[in-house]
Amino acid sequence: MIDITATATEMQNNFGRYLRLVMDGKEVIVTKNGKEVGRLIPREAVVSYLTDSLTGILSGSEDISQAKAEGLREKYEIIH
User: Fold this and answer.
1) How many structural domains comprise the chain?
2) How far apart are CA 57 and CA 76, in angstroms?
3) Nearest-angstrom CA–CA distance, 52 and 68
4) I need a surface site. Which of 11, 12, 31, 33 has the fewest CB within 10 A?
């Protein structure tokens, strides 16, 4: 998935445009003063993200934090 970056001002002035992009499955990263402050993501991605974050808890893993981090890293390619 290709992320789209928008400043808070751009987001405020063109919300409809960014909302359409999210409805089309894109993720919008919102920045303020050059720093990421939030993300607008499709509903399906939220459900998937929440489900994946519970994987360690639901599987009875002894190290919940590690299981969660590994699962999220695999799916979302998070680099720490």
Assistant:
1) 2
2) 19
3) 7
4) 33
- For residue 4 the two structure tokens come to 């789209």
Average per-residue pLDDT for the chain:
79
CATH number for the domain that contains residue 22: 3.40.1620.10
SS3 at position 24: coil
Question: pLDDT digit string (tens) for 41-69?
Answer: 888 776 666 666 666 555 555 566 776 77
Domain range for 63 is 44-76
Backbone angles phi, psi at 79, to 5 degrees: -115, 125
Question: In 30-56, which positions are buried (b, 16+ CB within 10 angstroms) versus exposed (e)?
Answer: bbeeeeeeeebbbeeeeeeeeeeeebb
CA–CA dist 41, 59 (Å, integer): 26
Per-residue DSSP letter, 62: S
